[in-house]
Amino acid sequence: MMQAALLLVDLQNDFLNRPGLTPVRDITVAAVTTLLEHCRDLNIPVLHAHTETRADGADRMPHWIENDIHACVAGTPGIQPPPSLQPLPQDETFSKSFYSAFENPEVGKTLQSLQIDTLVVAGIYLHGCVRASVLDAYAQGFKVWVAQEAVASTEPLHAEITRDYLHGRVATFLTTDEILARLGKTSRSDHSAMSTLPVACIANTWQDTAGTSYTLHRNPGCLSENLARVPYATKTEVEQAGTAARGTLSGWQVTGLETRIKLLEQWQQTLQQQAGILVDIMTGEIGKPGTDAQEEFQRALQHIGTALRLAETETHIDKTVTARYQPVGCIGIITPWNNPLAIPVAKITAALVFGNCVVWKPACQAAHTSKQLMESLIESGMPPGVVNLVFGDADTARHMIGDENIHAITLTGSVATGRTASALCTLHDKPLQAELGGNNAVIVLADADLEREIDNLANSAFSFAGQRCTAIRRFIAEDSIADDFEDRLTRAVADLQLPPLISEQHLQHVDNVVRHAVEQNGARLLCGGRRAAGENINCRYEATLLADVAADAAIVQEETFGPVAIIQRAQDLDAAIALANQVPQGLVAGLLTQDPDAGARFCEVIEAGILKLGAGCLAIHPEAPFGGWKASQAGPPEHGLWDRTFYTRPQAVYTQAEWS
Predict the structure, then answer these.
(1) What is the tens place of the pLDDT at every residue in 148-160?
(2) pTM for this one?
(3) What are the strands of the beta sheet with 588-592, ordered from one edge?
(4) Which domains, ranges and CATH numbers included, belong to the chain?
């Protein structure tokens, strides 16, 4: 009979708080906490391996001494785990100075005394201490399972190389659900009646649920209501989808541009006929306000029209030279939940019009919207295999990137998601186009018309509860008007009634970020900062404004993706631009002034891909490039003429003069 134990490696504040942790601290801690609680329910022994150094630092690793790194010092808060991961009296805790937990010989002795044969490992960092611990556990004869959503790293490329190397050799990477199923327990306690969605649509045929892993999506406006059980596609379904797309590719390419345009125009017409259905589904499952949902639907139609109007398969350079645009092949498309219509419609249209086929993985939170969108493609007459859908999680996306039938990946997601995708695409030598969110700033100068613009500014931060990559996260006000601006914006924001956040988990993440900023970083809370009063039955969080936050605080440097905005102060325009640029992201930046010279200066030195000058709200044009700088973008931007850069491969053709 199998005897299992759980080993938690280096889940300590100093390591969890390091910049660039992927997944971020809150997500990692939540995943490990879930695993830990279930293991304790099963009376599985729990071992904690913690790095510990003396106050004088003499026992640090040599490279820590060389680089003057002080971490996990005995007696400091940094050595401690988060509250939910604190050892209980029945747990075993071991100290170490280097990488592997097994550096401490008592770990191996304890496991042997408990007659353990299977070791479940979680913790950080996957590329370092987790890897070393797994290798040593294997060397000591243990079967090793790594809880794949309960490990994290600050080195995404090295983490993916580690995962690729360890899996199938010395360890098996499993989801928490898979681990619990092997231990004889399911983690799913809610089996109330709800729709179970198909796992995939391959060659226009919906496939039955596969495997045991799935997610439950609750109504963010009514947490007691389960909207869907969404299964995760395995490697098998991904391979089937990739094979279907690859098998259809040559036939789709030879149909020619005119035929492809006609089919996509038919899809556009089908979408128009289903407008009410799609908008209602979207508002119901992600909580998007009706006006925002209508705007997104119209934007989706505009993206189709723009792509069809601007598509061309060749450009004549002169009488004997032509540039041809050949399709890349099969495109893997990964889309988010917050824009479940406009983003997939834009990506699918751009891929198809240039002769590519598609394997599409939408976000599970928008599964019903995605299913209806796929149905609309089938109803419009799209040939089987041209677009294939797989539902799934991060592991499903990994299978897509690694599938030999998929030639390029385009995604919209978080910076952390982009780091992982970039690492995987590098490993598999595939082009990547990734729009990775923003940490956007608007600079407000002394001559701004605050009376006219304050409501627009509030809306730019808090519409759809800030769950937009283009939402403004930071307002940088010139010193001479900062007090007035702070007062006006606080009044405008305090009474806003916001839609719910997408999930309870996301609400807790936002609340944790705000609490940390106030309690640890000394931020001043101007309004909000808590769950909406009396709203425990849904995921509503108050519109939150913070001030007096240090520029290097996590809430300033990272995208919260919720109803939270920060007011910063700057002496003049140049100081404000420096603050705006002092973050890793660079998607959107705005300037509110009546001075054209200030606008020119702003455009010269601001580090962002989308700029908004002057009054009014930002409205994205379907023909303009959509993309960021720095960590906000990988690969070429989206939309308009720029789609051709990613979805085609240029080919120069030189002909004899008499042929032309």
Answers:
(1) 999 999 998 899 9
(2) 0.90
(3) 524-527, 544-547, 564-570, 472-478, 440-444, 588-592, 610-613
(4) 4-182 (3.40.50.850), 238-435 (3.40.605.10), 440-621 (3.40.309.10)
